[in-house]
């Protein structure tokens, strides 16, 4: 019989009075694991999820060897067999992506802009000399990972989503500083709540001049782990002082706005959406989407250098990215100068941030027309 809790591809098969097995994607599970699966699902409070890792059923993998990519492999293992001299461990040959799937009111699952993520992973691969994964293979892997874990896509209006993490690593042994000859590509998924625990509410951020996220001509424009490692120390200091993120200034002159923690920065003034142009900022797919939506709403869009002093002229400001979508900024504290740039005196998001946030979310959930072809419906 088909059990709806486990999705359309799952059935129980009784073999005799002592044993029964659950088959999921051609894999058999004994009855004790059936009960464990049910227990996991029953204990998930979809509306109270954090942005963390929750074990799901499967992940998918492909391997690059002898100049070509292998067929797609589905596994329930959460671990990677890896050589101790793998280049990802020693020389940072590692890149990843982040995207989401949403369940709509109609029950359909929608994946947001995975084509853009495939292209960005290729850019990251070129940046640190890894084998490029073809776009069609990336999209095939993402779709398969979501379908294999369909029961973990949070329900509509729960405020949660299925986070999709593609990962590409150099996996062959190499002691000298050279690129790997072999690569492993993995896509795993996990249901998540908002990145910032406050959700769509304003939070304070702070400028730290003693730290840089990335150098102007370094790896800031690609999505590699080293950029995030560099942000851990200032990030923890910021959290300990009550800030949600660090607002980085450009590494060369400390004059211009750069990244904002793990997200892109944007400011709103005079019906314009303004976001930094920099050779050390990761091109956010969410920011790219918001720029388009701002244009659709009749706003002027500017991507340019933003001098620090211009913060005083913004009516609203926010951080944006796949994980956070939009996190409105309450104020920016420049503790070195004893200055605070306040964007929300009452602690509420501004009207433009709220409009952009609701418009983007409506497209992701299928509640608004997808005019730009951003959504893949499964």
What does it look like?
The chain is α+β, with helices and mostly antiparallel strands. The chain folds into three domains: 4-43, no CATH class; 50-192, 2-Layer Sandwich (D-amino Acid Aminotransferase, Chain A, domain 1); 203-365, D-amino Acid Aminotransferase, Chain A, domain 2 (Alpha-Beta Barrel), CATH 3.20.10.10. The chain has helices spanning 31-42, 87-90, 114-127, 135-148, 225-229, 232-240, 285-296, 351-365; strands at residues 10-14, 20-24, 27-30, 59-65, 68-69, 73-75, 94-96, 99-103, 109-112, 161-170, 183-192, 203-207, 245-249, 257-260, 264-269, 272-276, 300-304, 316-321, 325-334, 339-342, 375-377. Strands 4, 5, 6, 7, 8, 9, 10, 11 and 21 form a nine-stranded antiparallel sheet that branches. Strands 12, 13, 14, 15, 16, 17, 18, 19 and 20 form a nine-stranded mixed sheet that branches. The protein has a three-stranded antiparallel sheet with strand order 1-2-3. Helix 3 (114-127) crosses helix 4 and helix 7 packs across helix 8. Residues 1-23 have low confidence and may be disordered.
Brief rundown of the structure:
22% of the residues lie in helices and 29% in strands.
Write the layout of secondary structure elements.
Blueprint (H helix, E strand, L loop, with lengths): L9 E5 L5 E5 L2 E4 H12 L16 E7 L2 E2 L3 E3 L11 H4 L3 E3 L2 E5 L5 E4 L1 H14 L7 H14 L12 E10 L12 E10 L10 E5 L17 H5 L2 H9 L4 E5 L7 E4 L3 E6 L2 E5 L8 H12 L3 E5 L11 E6 L3 E10 L4 E4 L8 H15 L9 E3 L1
Parallel strand pairs: 12-13, 12-19, 16-17
Antiparallel strand pairs: 1-2, 2-3, 4-5, 4-6, 4-11, 7-10, 8-9, 8-10, 9-21, 10-11, 13-14, 15-16, 15-18, 18-19, 19-20
Helix pairs in contact: 3-4, 7-8
